[in-house]
Amino acid sequence: MLLHFQDSAKLKTRNVAFETSYYARDSITLSQLRDLSSKRRAIEESINGSSHLTPAIAREMAGGVTSPIAQDLLKLEGYLPLLENLIECVQAEINNKPQVRQWTVDLRFRWTSPLSGSSVNPLSGPKYYRVDDLRYELCMVLNLFGALLRERALEILPVDLIKAAQLFRQAAGVYQHMAEKVLPDLQPVLAISADRPPEATVTMATIMSIVCLAEAQAVTARKAEEKGTSGSLLAKLHYGVVQLLDEALNILRERDSESTDVSEKFRRFLNLSKVLHESRSQRYIAADFRTEEKLGMAVGVLRHSMNRVQMVRPPYEDVWKPVYRQEIDALGQMLRKCEQENEFIWRDKVPRVDELPILEGKKLVMASPYQAFGLDRDFVFVT
To answer: To the nearest 5 percent, what fractions of the chain are helix, strand and coil?
Structure first.
């Protein structure tokens, strides 16, 4: 039932050498800048697919971790503290010396945007968005961190639902931190550029945080299904997913002037996920009506759900086609059984759409707050 949207993790970047951009006054600062460059290069090679490490060497360097996604998360956990620390030091120096605004030759932070609708040119390849500001680098690295936490959650989902839900909540916290703490300060810098990626907007960070919460809620519903929870509660849990996705879609629609370049695939993912979880909720409601021998209501709920699902039929080549087909087959099978029982046994009146019960949701998940790593090293620059 949980759709996989993996595009957000397909970020690419180009090389940055901090030691050639910042003028270090002492050898310790120079060493720390080189360490930053080295850790960033490891991330860059991994996400760009240019690493020459064998799987065995990569596993050994990661302390025995076998998952490439988990290995990349470890690399980010090594890079983020250094980057956050550098930003704090640079900002403190600027605050102390307002006349000092730029000590760098050229930072050239360049990232692609997989969430953009025009991110790939068939002739020139992926488009790189360049912003020469450390906070832009932090924004895009946190985007990658949140996206990889989602990927790791999807990776372990078949074997550990509890851990998967925790990772989705952690990812939600990363995006929430971006929206509240990182991106507001970056907006004046981005405002002077007519071209910025969706990943660098408060709108998209907020939407991605809500999407991660919806995914955590969906995993919670699956865990409740395994425990044999009542149908009425399961219906509410799945509709809680719908409510979260509705919130994300409403934000996207309300602020479309800021986010017109958001990919159509991402929009389709939100709509299809919403309708599939709404269908699952209605199947549980119909099952309860069937148990109560209210077959007319069951048929009405299922017919309405079938109409809703058929309206968002994905294209033939869509990667979500099997999940869609699985849901519509289950829905159709249940509808046929209820219609047959009602026609030959109960003969209940099938209600109109406006007579169907109003769906209720129950949201149980919250974002896990992102904690900055709190590294405290001094950088001494030539100003």
So the answer is: 65, 5, 35
Q: Is the dihedral of CA 44, 48, 53, 57 positive or negative?
A: positive
Whether 99 shows a pLDDT value over 70: the answer reads no
Residue 131 and residue 134: Cα distance in Å, rounded? 9
| Residues in Cβ contact with 313 at an 8 Å cutoff, skipping those fewer than 6 apart | 324
pLDDT digits (tens, 9 = 90+) for 316-369: 768 899 999 999 999 999 999 999 999 889 889 999 999 999 999 999 999 999
DSSP E strand stretches across 26-127: 110-111, 120-121, 125-126
The model's pLDDT over 114-151, given as tens digits with 9 standing for 90+, comes to 999 876 665 567 899 998 889 999 999 999 999 999 99
Q: What angle (nearest 5°) sits at the alpha carbon of residue 163, between those of residues 158 and 168?
A: 95
- CB–CB of 207/184 below 8 Å? no
Token pair belonging to 320: 């979500």
- What's 315's DSSP letter? P
Nearest CA to 141 out of 7, 48, 11, 304 is that of 11
Q: Is 229 helix (H, G, I), strand (E, B) or coil?
A: coil
Q: Is 125 left (phi over 0), alpha (psi -120 to 50) or beta?
A: left
Rounded Cα–Cα distance for residues 156 and 382 (Å): 47
- Which residue, 300, 258, 316, is CA-closest to 115? 258
3-class DSSP assignment, residue 227: coil
pLDDT digits (tens, 9 = 90+) for 44-62: 999 999 888 888 888 888 8
Q: Return all residues near 254 (Cβ < 8 A) that are at least 6 apart.
A: none
Question: Which residues sit opposite 24 in a β-bridge?
Answer: 381
